[in-house]
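hey can u run this one w/ S-adenosylmethionine bound, need the structure tokens asap thx
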Amino acid sequence: MTINKTETASFGVGRRESHDSSTFYGRNLYEGSFTQPLSKKKIDKIGVPSIGDWVDKIYCGSSTNMLEIPDNSIAVAFTSPPYNVGKEYDDDMSLKEYLDLITRVGKEVYRVLQPGGRYIINIANLGRKPYIPLHMFFYERHLELGYLPMGEIIWQKAKGANGSCAWGSWMSAKSPRLRDIHEYLLVFAKQDYSRPDKGVSDINREEFMESTLSVWEIPPESAKRVGHPAPFPVQLAEKVIKLYSYVDDVILDPFIGSGSTALAAIKNNRHYIGYEISEDYCEIANKRILEEKDINKLE
Ligand SMILES: C[S@@+](CC[C@H](N)C(=O)[O-])C[C@H]1O[C@@H](n2cnc3c(N)ncnc32)[C@H](O)[C@@H]1O
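ok here u go:
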């Protein structure tokens, strides 16, 4: 089939196949507007270390120091960080202290990611008076660390906020409040927007078409069922893993909580590695992993 190439037009363009976007990226909008250049970096050698006995484990400790993981060894890191909002595992940090913790972990994740590896962060914004756009601060901090922004997924958790009646003011312009039914998945890459290495993708046509849309509708997980105050659904992690990693890749979650990311990795023939500071949650994660391996008849 012959595909006629398109290029950025001054009045829109209908199709995108084989699209030449050099005119678009050559504009001043992309020049010097950021603390770090957002163009891909030169990669000398791919050199991903071979998988050792450091994988398929949950480390019960802080992800500010992930000493067990060699440099450039992780294909995808996916996480939902602590929100510092008073959950049973949260400290009461100032916004600066909180963002400093997120930045320290982001720096460690950058070290262990392989070139072209991705860091996907699930985050929700907080409060109403004032509204704290945490995702904006996360962009600032991670772009400063040198991450390349690849896009943003809206995780739509519900069609309507069932049972939520935090209207602010009822049917009045006095003080209406927005009731969030979404969270964000911020997608970053290390050094290159494309993976320079080769691998096997196991995503099918329908999954690919659906997962490359920027809104994902997935119901939330029950905290009570899992035994953790803020688990994300395994289905969310599975969708991330299938879209952004190859079979047999190593998937890291630096704040793994009840182990949802590990379960998603196991279900999809990837390796996992997780860090969790609470011994109780490490125990829950390891129990869920054993159950999942049992279902999949794995050792
Ligand atoms: C939002 S929860 C993650 C939930 C997880 N996605 C799940 O599905 O269960 C954040 C987790 O980070 C853990 N945590 C907080 N500070 C940490 C640190 N410095 N290193 C590792 N884990 C930490 C908390 O104990 C909490 O379990």
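Residues 62-64, 80-82, 89, 228, 230-232, 255, 257-258, 260, 275-278, 281 surround S-adenosylmethionine (CB under 6 Å). anyway lmk if its weird
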